[in-house]
TrEMBL record:
InterPro entries: Homeodomain-like_sf (IPR009057), HTH-type_TetR-like_transc_reg (IPR050109), HTH_TetR (IPR001647). This is Putative TetR family transcriptional regulator. PANTHER family: HTH-TYPE TRANSCRIPTIONAL REGULATOR PKSA (PTHR30055:SF226), HTH-TYPE TRANSCRIPTIONAL REGULATOR RUTR (PTHR30055). Keywords: DNA-binding. It holds the Pfam family TetR_N. GO terms for molecular function: DNA-binding transcription factor activity; transcription cis-regulatory region binding. Residues 24-84 form the HTH tetR-type domain. Residues 47-66 bind DNA. It comes from Gordonia hirsuta DSM 44140 = NBRC 16056. PROSITE patterns: HTH_TETR_2.
Length: 224
């Protein structure tokens, strides 16, 4: 059966799927294969041949969707970034009526749970990217995205007279430090339970927040 696309050109359907739907399905399969390989063996294992073999597709379909291997790595990384930002937003929204400190704690709990429960995906950001300028650039972009998010979430709680650029610097130090701490926790060099890790991070956050933002616990309930 022939269909007509929005541009007026005919599209042939196959098993009830249009050409665009089949292409989207192949792209998802390639992304899933790339993520699985990265989680199981590290980013260096994500080659065009390995991804195609895992997805059951030929290299023709790889290059239909991605210019090269780096483009696939970035796409996989961006998908995990979006999931992680979604976790943070959901955690904060679930404590919308709580204090800013409790919201931050909830965000840290959500990310820590993600690292603990899905260590394969966690290594996409908290693993070793040595040798890949593309992945190091992506890591910096992810940190910038998280800084932007927390600037917006914290804006109502900034103390009078605090310059936003100074607060961005504070957040950059804090979030960059969290990434390195997460690497240490994943590797076992920081011997904390998940709850202890969050508690230690909150103690650091309290010190970083001094003079910049109101980060007080709820008056009528404990922090945890």
């Amino acid at each position: 059966m022939n269909l007509v696309s929005d541009s007026g050109s005919p599209q042939r359907s196959y098993r009830g799927l249009s050409a665009e739907e089949r292409r989207a399905s192949r792209r998802r399969a390639l992304l899933e294969a790339g993520r699985e390989l990265w989680c199981e063996y590290g980013w260096a294992s994500v080659t065009m041949r390995a991804v195609c073999a895992r997805a059951g597709l030929t290299d023709r379909y790889f290059y239909e969707n991605f210019a090269d291997r780096d483009a696939l790595l970035v796409a996989v990384g961006e998908s995990v970034r979006d999931e992680t930002l979604g976790l943070i937003l959901s955690a904060v929204a679930a404590h919308a009526d709580a204090s800013s400190r409790r919201q931050l704690q909830a965000a840290l709990e959500a990310v820590t749970e993600f690292i603990a429960n899905d260590p394969g995906s966690a290594q996409i950001f908290f693993g070793d990217h040595g040798g890949s300028d593309t992945l190091e650039a992506l890591r910096r972009q992810v940190i910038d995205s998280v800084v932007d998010l927390f600037v917006e979430l914290s804006r109502p709680h900034l103390l009078p007279g605090v310059a936003e650029v100074q607060y961005r610097l504070t957040l950059l130090v804090g979030i960059g430090g969290f990434v390195e701490a997460a690497v240490g926790w994943r590797s076992g060099s920081l011997n904390f339970t998940a709850a202890e890790f969050v508690e230690a991070l909150m103690a650091v956050a309290d010190r970083l927040a001094e003079g910049s933002v109101v980060l007080a616990p709820d008056a009528d309930q404990p922090d945890s």
